[in-house]
Structures are given as structure tokens and as C-alpha cells.
């Protein structure tokens, strides 16, 4: 099965979720290398990227053309959203996603650059104005990511989705929680079915989809056209390809074990150091190294790997820890 976004074919319809501090260029490259229909950047503040804030520009860095890449924008000013959309399109983004789902307080709180993300679900007229501004600014496909609503009393995702479709949005992803749930409880995949019924464009299910079994359940309960995977890929960049193989018959990924797994982890580590510079890269890498060790159920040298400051030492410890272990996928 494949989905069409303009001239882009998303095959398979298994997508890497935007995750702040995680789906940077090095991680997206790892996931894309195993196979994904689309990989999505971290959320980028539209005004900050246009004012050349270094972190925002780093998050917008594409850097490779091996896979379809979507850049996710956040904001509440139509002018800055449109300008940022033009900028990332010029940088090579093949899809632009609008964030109306982030629940973080720093994003949704009023003041400064806040009151955006999922807070926009409380302001559907402004949400529509933002969508129209972005769609009108670019020629690449525009998509939208939301939650079910702000809270249980305002489950307006179907209405917002219908308005977004009318404004030219070509795909909608729904996280099966309200904003007020944050990440508590379980995602309600069945509730996504109301959005699917409201629009003709593809709908993607998101939330608590971490493996083949949960992906099957999410599709069955929501009727969605595809799935978006977030934390299930942490420490396992092959996870999307595994799910795609099971659901859509794409080639099975060759999941490395032992010394080959160490090579993969070190390659990711080195790319992070190169991308961020050694000082920042060492800090950014720790969470990824921790996930790799957790997925492989490796405890030997864990503390040393996560605290060492000399890259050569980290590489040697990784090789030592993985080489003797035939880890499971």
C-alpha cells in the first residue's frame, strides 16, 4: 500500500514521528537507511528559524536526499509560518507539516512564542488562517498533525481536519489523546475513526504505536491509512522497517547483531558529534546510547559509556559491550 502526497508516493505508509530533541538529522538518516515512507523533523519554531536562531536552523537542517523528509513548523503568526514554509521548501523539504498537537506547556502557554501547538485547537479560526498561509506560500504538500482535542469536552479534531482539508492540507495525523492527557493513559485509536470519516485525504494514526502488534491494532481500530511511530524507534531505527514488512510486505530489514550492532551505534554516535560539534554532541548522544543499550538489554559498561567524555573511549566501550552479545531485534 502507498499514499500519495502530490508527486510523492509514501510507500510504505509508516512514518517517523517528529520528536523534540530526537528526530534530528543523524537520527532521521538512521531510520531512513532501514526504510520509512516519510521521516519528520523536530518541531521548528517558525519565527525563530527566520530570525536565524542557531538551534532552530539546526533542527531545519535536511542534509540528505535518500528519503522523503517533512519539516514540521510551529507558530501562531500566519506571516512567520508562511515565511518559514518558504525557507524550508527552499532548503529541500519535500513536505511541510503544521504542528497543532504538541502538548508541552512551554509551547501551549500564552505569551512569548507560546499558545501554539495543541493550544491552537482552542482557536480554530486562527488554526485555519495558519493553514491557509502555509498552503498558499509553498508548492510542496502540506500536512497537519493534531490531537483529538484540547480536552474531553472539546473533541474537535474532525471539524479542524475538515477545515484543513478544504484549505488544501493533503494528509492529517492524529495522536489519539487530548492535550490535557499529555502522555497519560492509553492512546484512543478508535477515536481517530471520527477524523477518518470526516475527510477524504489520508489519515495517519499516532500514539503508543511501538511495534507490529500495536500498529495492527491501531489500524484496525482507527481505520487509518497508515501509522506514525515515535518512541518505538528509540534505540531501534529499524523498527519502522519491521512494521512496514509485517503490514505491507516491504523487504525485511537486516537488523545487525553483536559487532555489527556496535558498528551501527558508533556510526550514529560519530554523526551526532559531527553534526553538533564534540561538546554538544556528547550530551545529545547520551540518550540515544542509553536507548541502544536498553533495547539490546546490555548493562555492562553502561555507566561508563554514558559518562565518558573521550569519543575514543566511548567507541571502545561500545564495541566491548556489544561484541560478546547476540542481541535480539
From TrEMBL:
Catalysis performed (reactions): a 5,6-dihydrouridine in tRNA + NADP(+) = a uridine in tRNA + NADPH + H(+); a 5,6-dihydrouridine in tRNA + NAD(+) = a uridine in tRNA + NADH + H(+)
Enzyme Commission code: 1.3.1.-
InterPro entries assigned: Aldolase_TIM, DUS-like_FMN-bd, DUS_fam, DusB-like, tRNA-dHydroUridine_Synthase_C, tRNA_hU_synthase_CS
Similarity section: Belongs to the dus family.
Top EC class of this enzyme: oxidoreductase
Signal peptide: none
Protein's job: Catalyzes the synthesis of 5,6-dihydrouridine (D), a modified base found in the D-loop of most tRNAs, via the reduction of the C5-C6 double bond in target uridines.
Record keyword Transmembrane helix present: no
Cofactor: FMN
Protein name in the entry: tRNA-dihydrouridine synthase
Molecular function via GO: oxidoreductase activity
Keywords: Flavoprotein, FMN, NADP, Oxidoreductase, RNA-binding, tRNA processing, tRNA-binding
Keyword Ubl conjugation annotated: no
Gene of this entry: dusB
Residues of the DUS-like FMN-binding domain: 15-295
